[in-house]
Amino acid sequence: GLLHEESPRNNPVLVHEEALNLFNYSSTFSRFSNVPLTLLDLPDVEELVGESYYISTKEKSALMQAKDLAPVLYIQSDCDTASDRDRYVLELMKHIRIDSYGTCVNNAQLDDRLKNNYLDILNNREFLSFVAKYKFTIAFENAICDDYITEKLWRPLIVGSVPIYYGSPSFKDWLPNNKSAISILDFAGPIELAKFLHNLLKNDSAYEEYLPHKLSKRENRVANNELLRVLERRPTAISNEFGKYVDKFECFVCEQIQKNNHKLEKSVVTKRQYNCSLPRDPITGEINKRNWWTEQWTIEKCGAKLLTRYISNNISININSFVDQKMHMYDNNEC
Predict the structure, then answer these.
(1) Within a 10 A sphere around the Cβ of 320, how many other Cβ atoms?
(2) HEC secondary structure over 294-325
(3) Inter-residue contact 50 to 215 (CB < 8 Å)
């Protein structure tokens, strides 16, 4: 069984189907896995529609003037990613003001009470209240995979800041409403996106069209029936606690082993359960050859081939020896 909620950032060998085929069952971010983790980082519907952190558009405009806040927030401290997200942010910064508080593309400083341990308090009330002050929040994933959606999208939605999103090509399937977030892929480039954002800043009514999950009548705040169906079907005991999903997947695998013990057919994990594209330039859309993660994708093709050989022949793995063999295969174009 493959239990992996992360992107290939943590284990790039999994981008290759040869490695995935070693597993019979999966619990991944894909909606097609046996125990999907797609909505792991979304607590429940009430978090989406609740107004605990919500700040009105007029209040946000006043804060921009009084506190000299930019219209757009960016907080990121992982600056080496397959999605190359900082490249897009740097270009966007030329055309609209962005307050960037993390290590990456830093141009602003958090208050000491948030700065000292902000990675540990990303979901506490004080930090969420801080994010809520911004009209827009950049929500870029570290890799581009179908259904790989993290708290980067859900956090601004929960507090009522409009996400500017780059990540899962299928993310709109999970939004509470059609206009709950802005996708950078809907624009030719950062210049066009910035123009669009500037227009929303001039028109409160147009901006608030992206906030129906906070501003509509309570019973109409989430129009996505599939999202509601999945959340309602999720047992209360599981909620969004990762440990509960681990337990559920363990039980699932155990049940399948007992059920299929005497059957010849086998379930096999494929890219349908873990589909991540080769790193592309977020601005041009071209294969990103200058991003070292692109080379890593190719290296791990060797890793997938070698891993299959080891498993098929029941060979114990010594990690140092494995890495040496993998790099030898890569250097000799044997993948």
Answers:
(1) 8
(2) HHHHHHHHHHHHHHHHHHHCCCCCCHHHHHHH
(3) no
Strand ranges across the sheet with 182-183? 98-100, 72-74, 136-140, 162-166, 182-183
Is the confidence at residue 181, as pLDDT, over 70? yes
Query: Side chain identity at 130, as an amino acid letter?
Result: F
CA distances from 55 to 47, 98, 99, 130, 205 (A): 15, 19, 18, 10, 15
Provide the 10 A C-beta neighbour count for residue 296: 18
Phi/psi of residue 191, nearest 5 degrees: -65, -45
AA identity, residue 195: K
Single-letter code of the amino acid located at 239? S
187 φ/ψ angles, rounded to the nearest 5 degrees = -130, 150
Count the neighbouring beta carbons within 10 Å of the beta carbon of residue 134: 25
Question: Using an 8 Å Cβ cutoff, are 149 and 175 in contact?
Answer: no
Residue matched to tokens 């989406």: 48
Q: Round the average pLDDT of the chain to a whole number and report it.
A: 92
pLDDT at 9: 86
8 A C-beta contact, residue 324 and residue 299: no
* DSSP character at residue 278: P
Coil, strand or helix at 12: helix
CB 128 within 8 A of CB 114: no
Mean pLDDT of all residues in 59-74: 97
More confident residue, 166 or 123: 166
